[in-house]
Amino acid sequence: MAKIAVQLDKLTTRALTPETWPAFADLAERHNGVWGGCWCTFFHTMESEKTHDAEDNRALKQRLVAEGRAHAALVFDGAEAVGWCEYGPPAELPNINHRKEYDAKLVTPPDYRLTCFFVDRRYRKQGVAAVALRGALELIAQAGGGVVEAYPQDTGGKQITASFLYSATRSMFADAGFTYVRPKGKNHCVMTRTI
Fold this sequence. Notes:
By secondary structure, the protein is an alpha+beta fold. The chain has helices at 21-30, 54-66, 99-105, 128-142, 170-175; strands at 12-15, 71-77, 80-88, 112-119, 147-150, 179-184, 188-194. The protein has a seven-stranded mixed sheet, with helices on both faces.
């Protein structure tokens, strides 16, 4: 697949809903269900609930979207979805990496979590994730806002393969006005912003 030169000002964002599901599904299907068939369900379920089956994950995600229990800002280039940022309240996204360490240092739970980004391979390294983040923050503001928490990769300025950047980078969140709170796991951190 050839890389596409992105015109960021031409990209739009829309909420993941039953109406935008076909565009989301097309993006996921173009990438083999994303990360081995996850369909962006990893943070919705705890390990004991997972089937690790791509078709099960697709069905789960579609059901959660239909029920209004899966939120994301989809990035569109015309009619084609080319990226997303998953967000939701902790009850909707209970599974986060390094949970035991996170819980041990938690003072106040956030109102929203930003757990997962994905960008079409043709559009990577051109700012699409930042567009998805802005879209998610706009949707959170429209829903009443609150404390938004993210768990980005703390790269220390090093180049990291895209498969490890499902939570984006600390620098991208800092540029978007998030404040560093603490480390989480080996290479991630907790950052927050109130919307």
